[in-house]
Write a structure and sequence with these properties.
Length: 169
């Protein structure tokens, strides 16, 4: 089951209330939302899916985005609940910028604008690269060149997932 933390945060933001305000502020500033909000949403979504469908395999899209995200994961799920592998989507900044600005025309996202893109990239370098390095050092990082066309990237991801599923189960 594909589960996007960004989508979960955006859905929570739609509900309104104090948490929604916090999420909106952090997202627009290109910063990572406080761990307890993100991991609680993730936990609730995973439990709901497992309860209603019996499915227990998840592709977490956008998580962990920092060493703190991972620490919060361990605190909630326990040290023995490991994340087996990371798919790291590598893409030149200029390509990403163009894609995001293209998406901005219909996404309605508060962070799909040139200012937020820059801030998100700063956060990526400061907070996300260290977690990529950690997975890489453990041989758990699979790099995917996502500068290519949509279908080519999709095919690469499917191939990696098939390989991973065959290894693990
Ligand atoms: O992954 P996506 O681009 O949808 O994430 C959008 C925003 O959601 C991030 O810039 C960040 O503000 C928030 N986010 C977060 N923690 C995560 C994933 C996303 O705070 N693990
Ligand atoms: Mg996303």
């Amino acid at each position: 089951t594909h589960l996007s933390t960004g989508d979960l945060l955006r859905a929570e933001r739609e509900k309104g209330g104090p948490t929604a305000t916090v999420i909106e502020e952090y997202m627009t500033a290109g910063k990572l939302v406080p761990n307890e909000i993100t991991v609680t949403l993730l936990k609730n979504a995973m439990e709901m899916i497992t309860r209603t469908t019996g499915k227990t395999n998840f592709l977490l899209d956008g998580f962990p985005r920092s060493l703190d995200n991972l620490e919060a994961w361990y605190e909630i799920f326990g040290r023995e609940t490991d994340l087996p592998k990371m798919l790291y989507f590598e893409c030149p900044y200029e390509v990403l910028e163009q894609r995001i600005l293209g998406r901005a025309k219909f996404s309605g996202r508060p962070d799909d604008n040139i200012e937020s893109i820059k801030l998100r990239f700063d956060t990526f370098k400061a907070e996300t690269l260290p977690i990529v390095e950690l997975f890489r050092s453990k041989g758990k990082c699979v790099e995917v060149d996502t500068s290519q066309g949509r279908q080519d990237v999709y095919n690469l991801v499917v191939a990696h997932l098939a390989e991973h599923t065959a290894e693990e189960f």
